[in-house]
Amino acid sequence: MNILVSGSIAYDRIMPFPGRFADHIMPDKIHILNVCFLVNGVNEKFGGTAGNIAYSLSLLGEKPQILAAAGGKDFGSYEQWLRKLGLAQETIRIIPDELTASAYITTDQSDNQITGFNPAAMNHSSNFDFSNISPDDTLSVVAPGNLDDMYNYSRMYREKGVRYIFDPGQNIPAFSGEKMLEMLTGADILISNDYELEMIMKNTGADRDELLRRAGTIITTLGENGCIVLRPEAENRLPAAKVSAVVDPTGAGDAFRAGLVKGLVNGRSVNDAAKMGMTSAAYAVEHHGTQEHSFSQDAFWSRYNENYG
C-alpha cells in the first residue's frame, strides 16, 4: 500500500547544560531576563514529525513517501540518513536558499528545557502532486508541519476519498475552529494526546460526540497510561506496552503513529493497530532522540506478543 506522510523534516540540536536553570534565573528580575548558559556541546539529531514517522515505518518494513520541505543549505546529512534507510526523497521539496527547520533545545540537569524553533524551509509547501494517487491503495498521515499543507492535503484526501489520519498536534492554535473542524471532518482517525484533544474541543466548540460524528475514530494517547480508542460502537482503553526505562518520551508519539499505520496497512483492527503503535512507542521512550531506537521485526512481534498476547 502507498503510505503518504506529510509533516516536518527538522534537525533537533540538543545542548546539555551542566547546571540548573533555576540557579541562574532570579524570579524578581524575570521582567529584565538576560541570561547565558554555557553548554557542553551540541548533539545533532534527525527529527521532524514526517521524518520520525517515516523512520519507525522503515523499521517495520514500510517505505513511506515523505511530503515535506527541507533546506538546500544543510539537508545533506539528513539526505544521506534517509538514503541509508532506503526511503525515497523525490517527494521532499528542497528550498535552495533556506535552512532545514531546526529545534535548538537547551536541557538542564533537572530535565527542564528551553527551546527555540526556526521553521525555515517548513514555511514552504511541499507541493506534492496528487494526480497519480489512487484512493484504493493509499493511506496518509497529516502531521504537524507546513500549515498550508495540513489544510490543503486534508481537503484533497477528503475530495479524493483517500483514508487519512489527522494529527494536528502542536499546530492546533494556528488554525481557527472553523478550519480545524473542516480538516478533521472525513478523517479516518483523529489522533492526539489528552491535552491536545481538550484544545481541539475548546478551539472548535465541539464535544467528543460531535468530533466522532466528523471523524470515524478518535484515538487519544495517554503516555504511560496507554490510549483510548473511541469509535461509534465502543470505547476501549488499552494499556501501554511495558518499557525497561523511561529515558526520553520525545518522539514516542510519532513512533506510535508509525505502528498504528503499519497495523492499518496490514488490515488489522484499529485496536490491534493501536497496540502496535504502543509497542513501537515503547522502543522510542527507551532512547534519547526521536530516531535513535531500532528493532528487528522479529523483536517487535515478540515484544507485541509479550504485552498483548
UniProtKB/TrEMBL annotation:
Residues 38-292 form the Carbohydrate kinase PfkB domain. The keyword Transferase applies. InterPro entries: Carboh/pur_kinase_PfkB_CS (IPR002173), PfkB_dom (IPR011611), Ribokinase-like (IPR029056). The keyword Iron-sulfur does not apply. One of its GO terms (molecular function) is kinase activity. Keywords: Kinase, Transferase. It comes from the Bacteria. Pfam families: PfkB. This is Adenosine kinase. It comes from Desulfonatronum thiosulfatophilum.
